[in-house]
Amino acid sequence: MLRVDTYPTHEHNGIKIRRGKALPFGATIVPGGVNFSVFSKHATSCELVLFRKYEKKPFAIIPFPDEFRIGNVFTMMVFDIDYENIEYGYRMDGPYNPREGFWFDKEEILLDPYAKAIGGREVWGKDPDWDDKFQHRSRIIFDDFDWQGDRPLEIDMKDLVIYEAHVRGLTKHPSSEVKYPGTFTAIRDKIPYLKELGINCIELLPVFEFDEFEHSKISKVTGERLMNYWGYSAVGFFAPKAGYAATGKYGMEVDELKNLIKELHKNGIEVILDVVFNHTAEGNEKGPYISYRGIDNKTYYLLTPQGYYYNFSGCGNTLNCNNPIVRNMILDCLRYWAAEYHIDGFRFDLASILSRDQKGAPMVNPPLLEALAHDPVLGKCKLIAEAWDAGGLYQVGSFPAWGRWAEWNGQYRDDIRRFLKGNGDMVGRIIQRVQGSPDLYSDRGPTASINFITCHDGFTLMDLFSYNRKHNDANGENNRDGADENYSWNFGYEGPTDDYGINRERIKQVKNAITILLLSRGIPMILAGDEFGNTQFGNNNAYCQDNEISWLNWELLESNQEIFDYFKKMIEFRKKHPVLRAEQFKTAYNSSGYPEVSWHGQEAWNFDFGASTLTVAVMFAGGAEDYGTEDDQFIYAAINMHWELHGFELPELPEGKDWHVVANTGMIPPEDMWDENNHKKLADQNEVLVTARSIILLTAK
Fold this sequence. Notes:
It holds the Pfam family CBM_48. The protein is α+β, with helices and mostly antiparallel strands and 701 residues long.
């Protein structure tokens, strides 16, 4: 028996149709056909344009009859179409008056904002047909993936060790030795490596569909094509990047990404996506029509009174995130990724934009951020904000949180870098950062702080100690792009050198950095490749470099095995000591009989908090009753960033315990890091000598 609502009522040039369902938006497979639904408040009419895959000319253009419009939604059910082999778009008619915010053009074919797959860039870097006006084509998918019981892992926030990686850059270099380099599938081949390193969460740079040819040009410096490599410029928010899939040319990118997520989960690794809701690839007034501009420009973008685009993103336009329509689209998008892709969390690029109202002013209680914090589908997802934007709004420590949001702690990055470099007057700030930044998150706890020293944006860790200045000439912007304040130091020689002494100092600084990072309370984040000394040759803004500047060179894993081993053992050490992963700030004594965190100078229990010094020691005392361990745990780190040797008097331990060496960054392997069951007992239990720019890490046994 046919249901009434699956029976066609109209026909257009032989294609049977009827009024559809207004919700959900997008293209939804229904019995007998496909339901199309698209919102536009200001359009006067709409047409559905249907193509066979890869064909330039449509085989059907179907106007939405007036009775197919429900409120501000055009909706139509189309029967008997082969949804696996079609592409579709919309043509909207309406006023054209940019000063009033209207950009309607009936000749433009527009991408569905809710498209779950997008054609046009199925193979990375393959030149499209530039004469085709419809560059990015909506496709229809059937969500029938067999997850075999998989679900998000829901690892406690305090236990995360995040690994930030670019899908293509992680495996594209020939040295990666994978079958399909630069793809989702290739990351599966690296899962054993990720497990050995010890990370339990991978944060992927944008995987939503974007156009790698956006602003593409040939570099006058290198002669190579510059690409939109990072992908911080979404074409569509619901579709994975087809060019990142080995099977993208077959339209299988959805299943390929889901297979990757399933395998990562099987191996205890969560997946966080870097999402970009602050702007789109349509750019400013001179940008292309792709989707939102032609569907309802005035709704989707923040506009000045003169109709120009506010540019709080630094990329030409700014999404009108707290408009109810746009807000609901973002919620729908994240719910879709959480439900259909089993994503564990999201990191929001330039998240402060999400707190601006429809005139661009910051709000105290932004409805979008509140809705995300309390959304039932996203209730277990990690929510991480990059708590600033390109319009000058800086909210590190003050981002609206509702007990849910964590933040990229940019102050942690800058303070640790300056201290490692040897800048004075930093120790007071270092004390805050290592404790989990109570000066910023006193009411939220250490897990609100995502601690990082390097990320995709800036120097790699090895470059931080190899270059005094950025070297971005290959970007074609006369070295004007990228941050100038890097707090880096090259140890007397700019770039690679054969000088043994300089290279030892650089490796030592890498070890110092990761030691402080993994001892700090909060959530540590490591940039992919830092664990084996990867370099970008001094480029601190490699957003356009689809080449060996950005690709991880896995040959360095062999030549810098010592760095990898140190990273791995430090991650293991952190996991074994819950006192380093506290969720609350405690200043009182705990069940160990000691303060949970105490600060020491070169004399135990005596630290001048007002001093300008490059030496500081911290002791963590984890009471067995407080942390569920078999015994009280004591960790002591003597940190000497001075250019001279210093002695540190050691705090006295409870009877029956002695200090043992875990790590000494001033030593070479194997004495730089001792195995857990082979920690070296200190001969002198009263004092430890720490060489210049070194850290000695001790534990009590």
